[in-house]
Amino acid sequence: MSDLETFPDLASRALGGGVIHANDEFFAAADHLVLAEPPGFTRATFGPKGQVYDGWETRRRRTPGHDHAIVRLGAPGVVRGVVVDTAHFTGNYPTEASVEACGAEGHPAPDELDGWETLVPRSPLAGDSRNVFPVDSGRRYTHVRLSIYPDGGVARLRVHGEPVADPRHIPDRFLDLAALEHGGRIVGCSDMFYGSPANLLLPGQARVMGEGWETRRRRDDGNDWVEVRLAAPGRIHLAELDATHFKGNAPGWASLTAVDAAGERLELLPRTRLQPDTRHRFPLTPDRDAVNVRLDAYPDGGLARLRLWGRLTPEAFAALALRWFEALPEAHAAALLPGVERPLADPAALAPLVPALRLG
Fold it and tell me: In Gene Ontology terms, what is a biological process of this protein (predicted)?
């Protein structure tokens, strides 16, 4: 795994990403591009149109031009790298690909998108390979367009980056501070033998045990843990430890400890018994704002989701709003606040767009 792949996949279906347009899907649907699971392949599995592929595959082009697909990012954000994965495509992969991105307001149709900016220029691809392309851009994008030259198959498109939340979607500064889509991130973990701890921060309910975080069985006197850097500093009022699907392998107990901006530790939830296959909710009454939170699971086991509902500090919310606006592509920012130059000296200039800034 490259360093850029430590960032979440903003295009993943697990985050709500989706393919909203493809000019050709003759052999295999473009929806496969954003599936979270690795691509698979079974030899000699033929359908009415040939070998079945777990990916997007277009027909052989007999006219000039190229094929393309547009993906709506599940979590809009700053892109740090792209992976064009041609796994299992050997004699039918594109020879080249490019990736563009744009930022759009609301919920546009494919033909309403414009202002495309190049993230990956037209570049050679290798077949049956994970083609990794670092991206140097500080802009927040909502959509990407993958172009393949001239045709062929791509198994997965990964768009790794940092989610940047829209402050207009955070009423009263209240949100799940741990959520990946808001910018929460795993910064430490004792064990992830059966499942990634990043799954804890995904939206929605886990469908199966494999969509959660699970550790191996401990044979010592220790315990497993995971640490989350919150999307922004805030005061946590409700914790949800969801053990759904974990029946014979849920932790017996758990605790939550916060770290504030000064590095001081604060007990949020003392060691508390958990029940298997249960969503546990714990009201909290902290007296300080948290920056990071550590979940300790005793002695081991698995959880499906971790939610940490709380209110951003006014300063943190202003900083989040400022980062969002400064990261917008030029056309998007100009459409929202015509005539306003960046960088902004004062987040208060965003109050016409973000009413919650007036709450103080």
Answer: purine nucleobase metabolic process
